[in-house]
Amino acid sequence: AKASGGGRFSFFDPAMAETAERRRTLETDMQLALRRNEFKLFLQPVVDLSGKRVVGAEALIRWQHHEKGLIVPDAFIPLAEETGLIVDIGLWCLEEACLRLAEWQREGRDLYLSLNISARQIPEGLPPAVVLDAVRRHGVDASRLVLEITEGVLLADVGRSQSWLRELRESGFRIYLDDFGTGYSSLSYLKRFPVDTVKIDKSFIRDLNRNENDRALVEAIIAMARSLRLQVVAEGVEDAEQLAQLRQMGCNYIQGYHFSMPVCSADFAAAAESIARS
Ligand code: C2E
Ligand code: CA
Ligand code: CA
Ligand code: CA
């Protein structure tokens, strides 16, 4: 149904029409995916400095499409944010995260789980009371659930983000500042937005062994975090050399393909055990 239909679209750029149509299809498909349970919460282990002990995991969404196969978040999260569907997807993620945490608790595993939060979810899309209700229903300790936010998310509405953050922290949830170093991240934000941990973006880790500037930057972030008594997680660690550097700089936790890719929840225990044995 492109340029046909009695010239209705005669001044319509066919390429644009196709994009608009693709977006509509994707939007409808995402709504269906929620009902069909096609979203999966993959988990990537976060490892302590020893490189042996898994302390937790980051939840990363995947879409197991019934026809197209596995779809990565960059291909649908932006549209979900634009259309507002991210709110329902986010609630699904929260529920799923609580199920995992309850399961780990039953198995006696001492692990935390972190969720990525989009701007559209703050504050109405994910009110602190809803997060608290979710962990309570599942009998999970609030300190096990971490919310990963970017400074862009916070800056969208400073006043409201501050009270959103404060309420969550008062309830015992922990907050990670994600993609640290990529925006305008500075000391003043860390003062305005109380967080527990900063996550150094993988773009600074990639060339850590070759790029003098990246090394200086990562070193500075870690030093600054330490002086503010914040923990540091480095993401995107792919080799032993990067790991050794980060260790030497005093980074607290490490995440990346060097240890494990994000895996489906059924494979998580095996991934953690293989890291412990490595
Ligand atoms: P992010 O939060 O910065 O997540 C880190 C990304 O780096 C993930 O990509 C992860 O799979 C990837 N990664 C991990 N280790 C390595 C490594 O060693 N090397 C490289 N090159 N990459 C690594 P992914 O899973 O494709 O997610 C992309 C982005 O999508 C995330 O970036 C996050 O912003 C967003 N996202 C993922 N899941 C969710 C979700 O449930 N909700 C929301 N709102 N956003 C999500
Ligand atoms: Ca993240
Ligand atoms: Ca990142
Ligand atoms: Ca991100």
TrEMBL record:
Domain named EAL: residues: 23-276
Annotated protein name in UniProt: Diguanylate cyclase (GGDEF)-like protein/PAS domain S-box-containing protein
